Amino acid sequence: MHKGDNSYADDFVHNVAIYKYALEHYYQNDFIYFELGDGVELWENKSFEPIYNTYKEIFDLQLKFHKQKRLHLLWGNHDMVFKDKNVVEKMLNRFFTDKQSKDKKLLFNVDFKESLLLDIDGTNKSIFLIHGHQADFMNYSMWKFNRFLVRYLWMPLQKTFAIKDPTSPAKNYKNSIKVERNLKKWIVKNNHQIVIAGHTHRPKFPLPNEVPYFNDGSCVHPKSIIGIEIENLEISLVKWHVKNKEIIKETLEGPTDLSLYFSLSL
Predict the structure, then answer these.
(1) Which residues pair with 239 in a beta bridge?
(2) What letter would DSSP give residue 119?
């Protein structure tokens, strides 16, 4: 999502109404919510305060998922500081009043993870959830250097001259292809493990006979959000957008039975 500070550089702000509508739908229909990293933009923003003030309704909605144990958050390269619980507490706690302390405890009790492995009922198979920057050397091992470039070079240029950030695979085609190739190599080496990632923002939904690399897209596409649904052991790629002044959900790919992706693995 890359939730920012409502400035020109905030890529999420134009989709907030669509996202809120979709998330309320998933809450009402008992879905479990997985956020695959980069939920907040902490490269362009040093402080959480403007992000929280801009998107308080969104954080409150996610908190409702958390209270029912239906919220799972991963960290990506743009919120990689969340791998350190002490940093999370230091960064976020002071923006909640004593009156909200109970909710604060619930919110920050979330255990941000690097990855999750979902066992598939009735099988010995699983789905590996990851942000995907682990396959991107500059955005994993050198993330602090890239953060410096984004914060002090590319963001000012973006605001002034609309220059794209070349450190981002989402805005650099060659880099995104390289990241996807690295992920697919890892999948093949690991018995065609089913993987769902983000990072490149490029939606991917393989055919059953292809390398099982899925990408859930992002929530910063122009006037739409894209994600992945898994329901009744079937997987789909979906798009929420505005049509005829109404927010609707469109299924782009699937639903496909997960078992069809098992044939490539031993």
Answers:
(1) 226, 250
(2) E
